[in-house]
Amino acid sequence: MRDLRHPRTPIGFAQAQGAGGLRVELILGQVLHFAADPFAEGPAAALVETRGGVLVDGTRIAAIGPAAALRAAHPAARVTDMGSALLSAGFVDAHAHYPQTGIIASWGKRLIDWLNSYTFPEEMRFGDPAHAAAVAARYLDLVLAHGTTTVASFCTSHPESVDALFAAAEARGMRIAAGKTCMDRNAPPGLCDTAERAHDESAALIARWHGRGRLVYAITPRFAPTSTPEQLDALGTLWADHPTCLMQTHLSEQTEELDWVRALYPEARDYLDVYERAGLLGPGALFGHCIHLTGRERMRLREAGAALIHCPTSNAFIGSGLFDMAGLIAEGQRVGLATDTGGGSSFSMLRTMAAAYEIGQLRGRALHPAELWWLATAGGARAMGMAERIGNLAPGMEADLIALDLASTPAIAQRSARAGTFWEAVFPTIMMGDDRAIAGVWVNGQRQRPAEAPRG
Ligand SMILES: [Zn+2]
Prior knowledge:
Bound molecules: zinc ion
CATH architecture of the largest domain: Alpha-Beta Barrel
Strand content: 15-25%
Number of helices: 17
C-alpha cells in the first residue's frame, strides 16, 4: 500500500480490494498521447510509449509511462496486459443524431429530401419513451463498441428523447452532451414546438440534466430553416441564462440550404449572422459542417472561439461538399470531427478519420495520421470545452480510454506487419479499421463488457 500514488485513500483502496476488485488498474500496451496540437507543433506532438502503461485510480488516470517503471512503482495495482495493442484516449464524436440510428445508410437524395423522407418520419417515433430508451441504449452500445466514449448528440423535439439518452449515458458512466432539437417551422406538425415551448422544455431539461454527473446539456436548434427568428431568439436568451451549456446546430452544409436560409432570413448578412443575431454565436457553440462559408463567417467564427465540426462521411454520403480543413486550421479555427450519424454512414471514428483523410486529399492536403487521431480525440474534446477532462491520456484526466488491435483483420495485419514506423503501423487501421479493431474500452475507469446483440 505504501507504494500507491495516492496515500490519502488507502482505506478506500483496501475496501475495494476486500469487495473483490482493485480500484487501481494498470493497463499495459503502446501508449499514445499528445503533448500539444500536432497541427500547430507537427506530428512530434504525438508521443508514443512503445511498452507503456496507463495507471487508472478509480475514475481518473493517475500516471502514464514505461510499463516496467509503473509496475515497479505500483506493485499492488491489478494489471491488464493488452500486449501490443494501442492505448489511446476514447474517441470523441462531436456531432451525431442518435435518433437516426435506425435509418443510417438510407439510399439517395439531397439533404432536404433526406430529412423529409427518412429523418422526420423516424424522429416522430421518439415521443414514445420506450422506443426512445431502446434506441438510446442501442446507440450508446454501438458507439462504445466502436471506441467512442463521448458524443455530442442531437435528440428529437420530444423531451422524452433527451431523458432517454441522458439516462442511458448515466447508466454507462459516459460523458456526453445532448439536447432537445428545436423546430417550429418547415417540419411535420408532430415534430414542431413553438418558440416558447422550445425555451421552456429546454430549460426544464437543463434543470434536470445539465451538470449531473458527467452530463452536459447542449441547447439545440436543428438549423436556421426549421426555426423562426422568434425561436432562435428564445434559445439565445436561454443560452445567456445558462452560459455553461453548449449550443449545437448546423451551418452551411449544402448550397440549396444556403439559398433557403437567404430566402427565409433576408435581413441577415449571411447564414452565420442568423445565429449571431439571436445570441447563438460564442465559445461553446458547435457548428456542424461549415462547408460553404464566406470570409466574414470565417472571421466571426474565429473571433467568437466557436467550434467547426467536420462530418466527412456525411458530406460525401449526402454530396454536400469538401470541408477546407487546411485553410480553416491555418486561420486558427477550432475544429472537431464527427460521424453525423445517420447522415454519416458509419458509427466508427476510424472510418470518419479515413473520410477526413480522403476529403483532405481531394483538397490537396494529406492529413498526417497524428493530426487525424488528434481530431478524433483531443480536438473533439477541445471543441466541446472538455479538453481538461477527456480526449488525452494524462495524469488527472478522466479515465476514458480504448485499446486498439493494429492487426484486427487479415488485410490490416499483412500491411501493418511491414510497417517501419509507428504511424505506418497505425495508418492501415485508420483507413481500413472498424469495431473489430477495438480490443478494450474503459469509461470513467470501468472496463466495458461487450453488449449483447441489439434487440429489436
Ligand atoms: Zn447533423
